[in-house]
Write a structure and sequence with these properties.
Layout: H1 3-20, E1 32-36, H2 55-67, E2 70-74, E3 89-92, H3 111-122, E4 126-130, H4 151-156, E5 159-163, E6 167-170, E7 189-192, E8 195-198, E9 205-210, E10 225-233, E11 236-241, H5 247-250, H6 253-267, H7 278-281
Parallel strand pairs: 1-2, 1-3, 3-4, 4-11
Antiparallel strand pairs: 5-8, 6-7, 9-10, 10-11
Length: 299
């Protein structure tokens, strides 16, 4: 077996082992994950065909079957006004304001429902965000860093600004000991749609860095900034990765290992040092790109 193929296989296998290593709860029941994918803009990995689950929903369900947790997939915002106590982890691949109509007929999340989610995470539930989970609620002007970001952004630890065209880039590893990361090596390269982000929480533990040197498009003309991180929000564990726009990213074993490691950590199945390292890993992360002037109206 070639070395790269071996590393890919080993990375995914290590993630399965981590998730199955020990029970997350004192109870005998399996942990339950709510995978929530509502959004006005639906990326391909969360776009359903009729009643068939989307690609990422099917994969998430398979991960749960193999690793010992139950998954509920939904686009119904009313769930957050109901019993959240039955969930141990909330996983979001959302997009756009969840309080507004999404154009697909999926009920919105109420303001109280959002508060109940944030309170649940602060009280100890886990949260995992994929890709456009950072493009869900916003704090204010896109060209500024807010001292008091939107409560959802404050929980997540970062916020979407913009993105350019898909391109292959380097993502230096800044936390090799985080579960699921070891097989990536020191500076893996991936092709995806990359988010330019801001409003980073001070207690971020940066796992992967967005190396911007050589990237095109105005929104990447800035110093390196966090692309994947872990942090605590109150008693809860929060993991976010900007990966996830493309289907082949969701089926990439290295990315699978990273996602599974983040899930394992957020569920409390594995402990790892997540000391804040933002100042060391990305000291100029808050230096935002120069925004382009608004387009002139056509005559």
């Amino acid at each position: 077996m070639k070395r790269r193929a071996f590393l890919l296989t080993a990375g995914a296998a290590a993630a399965w082992t981590t998730l199955s290593a020990r029970p997350v709860l004192a109870q005998t029941r399996k942990p339950k994950v709510l995978y929530f994918t509502r959004g006005a803009f639906e990326h391909d990995p969360v776009k359903r065909q009729g009643r068939q689950l989307a690609l990422s929903e099917r994969l998430f369900t398979e991960w749960g079957q193999k690793a010992g947790f139950d998954v509920e997939c939904s686009k119904d915002g009313r769930l957050f006004d109901r019993d959240l106590g039955k969930y141990d982890l909330f996983a979001f691949y959302t997009c756009n304001n969840l309080h507004e109509p999404d154009g697909h007929g999926n009920p919105p999340m109420s303001g109280d429902g959002l508060k109940r989610l944030l309170d649940a995470v602060a009280a100890g539930k886990g949260f995992v965000g994929f890709h456009s989970a950072a493009d869900t609620f916003h704090s204010g002007r896109a060209d500024q860093v807010q001292k008091e970001p939107h409560p959802y952004v404050a929980m997540m630890g970062g916020e979407f600004i913009s993105h350019g065209h898909q391109q292959e880039v380097t993502l230096p590893v800044t936390s090799a000991s985080f579960p699921g990361v070891a097989a990536m090596g020191k500076a893996p390269r991936f092709l995806d749609e990359w988010y330019s982000l801001k409003n980073f929480a001070a207690n971020l533990h940066v796992i992967l860095l967005q190396e911007t040197q050589g990237m095109t498009d105005w929104c990447y003309q800035r110093p390196p900034y966090p692309a994947t991180w872990a942090r605590t929000h109150g008693k809860g564990r929060v993991f976010y990765s900007s990966f996830g726009h493309r289907d082949d990213i969701w089926t990439n074993p290295l990315v699978n290992a990273l996602f599974l490691g983040g899930i394992a950590w957020a569920l409390g199945r594995v402990d790892v040092d997540i000391a804040p390292n933002l100042a060391q890993a990305a000291p100029q992360a808050d230096r935002l790109p120069k925004f382009p002037p608004p387009a002139k109206p056509k005559a």
